[in-house]
Structures are given as C-alpha cells and as structure tokens.
Amino acid sequence: MEATVQATRRPASVAFRIHPLYRIFFLVLEPISALVGAFYTHFRQETYLSLLNAASAPTQAPKATSVAMSQLSNMYMFFALNEALVLRSTPDLRVWKTVLLVLLIADGVEC
User: Domain named DUF7704: which ranges (predicted)?
Assistant: First the structure.
C-alpha cells in the first residue's frame, strides 16, 4: 500500500517568486501584443503589410499571402494563449523557463 501511495505523489517543488515586472511583462504585455498581432494579421492584412513596408505593400493582399497571414495569425494566437494561460497555471520555474525558451527560439528563427 505504501509503495502505491508514494508512486502517486508529486515531487516537491521549491517555492519561488517571479519578480512582478517579469510577471507583468510575460502574463499581460506579451500576450496582449501577440493578440494585437493576431488581429492585424487576420482582419487588417493590408494595414499589417503596409506597416511592414509601405512601399511594397499591395492594396489588396493576394490570396496566397492572405492564407499565409491567417496562419501567422494562428501562431500569434497560440503564443498569446500559451504565455497567458500556461505561465499563469503554474509557479514551477522549470515550466516558466521551458515556455520562455521556446518563445525565445521562435523569436530567433523569425529574425
């Protein structure tokens, strides 16, 4: 009986507190900016393209560009939800580090 009880227990995690500035940035500002990006890449595509490069922005986005931008919008939405919900759901530092590392890698690949 004791072996099954110990097998189902979760390992103890060390308590820590994330600095309030990091919490505000990663739980509020970053998700909001990603949601704004999702909105513009899906609903305001011509505006988004003109903000990127006004000289080469089309007046009407071609169908292939529109589809690609809608997919980009989905990725922005995924990042916003991932950051806002996953990081809010746990105080586990390993989870925070992992999620933020993935976002850092995604930002690096984007450049």
Answer: 18-107
